[in-house]
């Protein structure tokens, strides 16, 4: 059985790390290099770093910054934001990222996913799905960091991304983001059960029990979180211990 991964998410805006609620009301919480150094020590399995304004500002990632912080990152690193072309993906990978995360460009240029997976391998292409519930039982996708509604069913879009060639999915509930009230288990499970590739749950983690629910009830392969690690005393290491105590296989950690 594959080991469940604990993945902190770092959102970049104007060089600093920010966190919001429902993709809004952003506040600065840290700077990137100190945060990465802390997570190195806390035995996280991976890190996700996304520049949340690159796409809406129609600019490229700051590849020099990516190279700088990737050099300090000793766990697998996924980087996203503003990726629109094959050359963007190549630059991110050459800067030191292990994977790239693509959201908005997949709607406009679906062929990018296929070309990228063929050139670089599907294992380093992460399809990002931001979704929300517009009315009871009615879900849609969002692009441009939640600013643009895309009238696509998240499950159907997940299947499309899988067919195009992504190696895994990062699935984020816009409604739950930053609320720390738990993941959207209904949609998470629908997506995880529909596809054959790993699904990372994102949006809403407020305690270790929420992570356990995402895995047991939501059928996620990994859990991503931000607010729980920024604003509480809960840590990735303690999350691993909790999951292991509840029968979930996790990657090895040192006993402190």
TrEMBL record:
It comes from the Bacteria. The keyword Amino-acid biosynthesis applies. One of its GO terms (biological process) is L-histidine biosynthetic process. Its EC number is 4.3.2.10. InterPro entries: Aldolase_TIM (IPR013785), His_biosynth (IPR006062), HisF (IPR004651), IGPS_HisA/HisF (IPR050064), RibuloseP-bd_barrel (IPR011060). It holds the Pfam family His_biosynth. It catalyses: 5-[(5-phospho-1-deoxy-D-ribulos-1-ylimino)methylamino]-1-(5-phospho-beta-D-ribosyl)imidazole-4-carboxamide + L-glutamine = D-erythro-1-(imidazol-4-yl)glycerol 3-phosphate + 5-amino-1-(5-phospho-beta-D-ribosyl)imidazole-4-carboxamide + L-glutamate + H(+). GO terms for molecular function: imidazoleglycerol-phosphate synthase activity; lyase activity. Keywords: Amino-acid biosynthesis, Histidine biosynthesis, Lyase. Pathway: Amino-acid biosynthesis; L-histidine biosynthesis; L-histidine from 5-phospho-alpha-D-ribose 1-diphosphate: step 5/9. The keyword Amino-acid biosynthesis applies. IGPS catalyzes the conversion of PRFAR and glutamine to IGP, AICAR and glutamate. The HisF subunit catalyzes the cyclization activity that produces IGP and AICAR from PRFAR using the ammonia provided by the HisH subunit. Belongs to the HisA/HisF family. Heterodimer of HisH and HisF. This is imidazole glycerol-phosphate synthase. The lineage of its organism: Bacteria, Pseudomonadati, Spirochaetota, Spirochaetia, Leptospirales.
């Amino acid at each position: 059985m594959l080991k469940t991964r604990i993945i902190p998410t770092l959102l970049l805006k104007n060089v600093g790390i920010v966190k919001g609620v429902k993709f809004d009301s952003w506040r600065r919480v840290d700077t990137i290099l100190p945060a990465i150094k802390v997570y190195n020590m806390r035995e996280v399995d991976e890190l996700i770093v996304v520049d949340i304004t690159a796409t809406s500002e129609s600019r490229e990632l700051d590849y020099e910054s990516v190279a700088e912080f990737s050099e300090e990152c000793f766990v697998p690193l996924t980087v996203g934001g503003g990726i629109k072309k094959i050359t963007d993906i190549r630059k991110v990978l050459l800067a030191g990222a292990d994977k790239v995360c693509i959201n908005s460009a997949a709607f406009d240029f679906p062929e990018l996913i296929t070309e990228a997976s063929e050139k670089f391998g599907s294992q380093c292409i992460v399809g990002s799905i931001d979704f929300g519930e517009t009315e009871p039982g009615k879900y849609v996708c969002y692009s441009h960091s939640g600013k643009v509604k895309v009238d696509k069913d998240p499950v159907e879009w997940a299947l499309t991304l899988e067919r195009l060639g992504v190696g895994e999915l990062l699935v984020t509930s816009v409604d739950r983001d930053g609320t720390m009230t738990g993941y959207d288990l209904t949609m998470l499970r629908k997506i995880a059960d529909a596809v054959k590739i790993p699904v990372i749950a994102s949006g809403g983690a407020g305690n270790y029990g929420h992570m356990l629910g995402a895995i047991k009830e939501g059928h996620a392969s990994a859990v991503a979180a931000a607010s729980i690690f920024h604003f509480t005393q809960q840590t990735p290491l303690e999350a691993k211990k909790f999951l292991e105590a509840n029968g979930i296989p996790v990657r090895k950690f040192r006993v402190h």
